[in-house]
Amino acid sequence: MKIIVAFITVTISICSFRPAMAQIDSTLLKSPSAAKDTLKQTLNMDAIYNRPFLQLGKSPISIGGYVESDWEKVSTSGISLGNQFQFRRFSLFVASTITSHIKFLSEIEYEDDPTGDADGSTGPQFEIEYAALDFEFHPLFNLRGGMIVNPIGAFNQNHDGPKWEFTDRPIAMSQMLPDTWSTTGFGLYGKKYVKDWMFGYEFYITGGFNDSIIDNTQGKTFLPAAKSSLSRFESSASGLPSYNAKISIRNTHIGELGLSYLSDVYNTWEIEGAPVDSKRWLHIFDADFNTTLPSRTNIVTEWAWIFLQVPPDYTPEYGNRQFGGFIDIVQPFYRGKFLDWDHATFNVAVRGEYVDWNVGKFQATGQRMYNDTWSIMPAISFRPTPQTVLRFNYRHQRTQDITGNTIGATIGTTAGYSLGLSTYF
């Protein structure tokens, strides 16, 4: 509580400050009243700035944020905790244009996600998620440095709750990949427009993962475990940089395709210049796509492949290959005036998911390793405005352990309902 009170006090002080500086660039920080045509000309890489911000008078400071809160009642293998009320997230954005072509953005978040935190446990966290400075030299050549959100796929960059029709984040993008994975580093990014086509790229050199991805309480290869180490913002476990790149292509009539790649030596292989282990590599490939059909049906999908070197004396639960992803289909069935809202929308939606934490076969028997999860989530949502969503979901999910067993406290069939709200402010 002391941290939260101190944070709110500092934020109020910042927002009250009125120095004589250049105004925030309105083309970068979109307000809810921004022109629709301008908002459409974006890629997933723009999501960090493509949010509703409020500029405070003549101050160069703009602020915004979002909140998520849910109710759920689910059971796994017939065991239920009953009704659960969850205040999942509160994020605050603070941004400023320092001077012409130099801008700063930060995001501070409170999170209490019952699906599991970085090390697999549950509980509240309060952290800085993003804090980076951008130098704009040319549309195709810009520099970004600080604490950045890595472009591992689209969801890691475009994860804000109000943008989605589902109360839970995709399993593959939050429990196989580490969602909102941010590291310290520097990189280049740029965009190019040619008629109906848009091209964007990002390339960053940052800190990376650590040994906890194969030494954790989950008992399996688990990349999100690396989030529990706050020292990653100061030092790298391997002493070597992580390389992360993404390219995106959008056609106005077709949609957006993104391809991303991350390469990292994740283990501590050297201590004070003396080798203590061999270098162990981690490689992540990710493909994402989104489109809107003439029927206004919106389709979003993302799939990731993980390859890593595991020590030969580790048990098979620590897989060297993982695969997973999701597909969302959202169909508006009413748009128009509802009560006092002139542009309300009702949607039906469905999400399909699959994750395999151990791709391959047992070396000893040649039989398939399982340790996988599939899930389907139908949903209905109501948006009084595009920035606010009230959503009702049903989940049917099936999980197997590495041998294919489906009986246990955390495996088997999961079913239940959730009701949630999320809004920008």
Give me the CATH superfamily: Porin
* Radius of gyration using CA atoms only: 22 Å
What is the CATH topology classification name? Porin
CATH architectural arrangement? Beta Barrel
Specify the structural class: mainly beta
Secondary structure tally, helices: 3
Which stretches of 5+ consecutive residues score pLDDT under 50? 1-39, 115-121
**The number of domains:** 1
End-to-end CA span: 22 Å
| Main beta sheet strand tally, sense and closure | 16 strands, antiparallel, barrel
Strand order of the largest sheet: 2-4-5-6-7-8-9-10-11-14-15-16-17-18-19-20
Give the percentage of residues in beta strands. Answer: over 45%
Shape: globular
Give the fraction of residues assigned to helices.
under 10%
* H and E string: HHEEEEEEEHEEEEEEEEEEEEE
The level 1 CATH classification is Mainly Beta
Overall mean pLDDT stands at: 87
Q: Give the strand tally.
A: 20
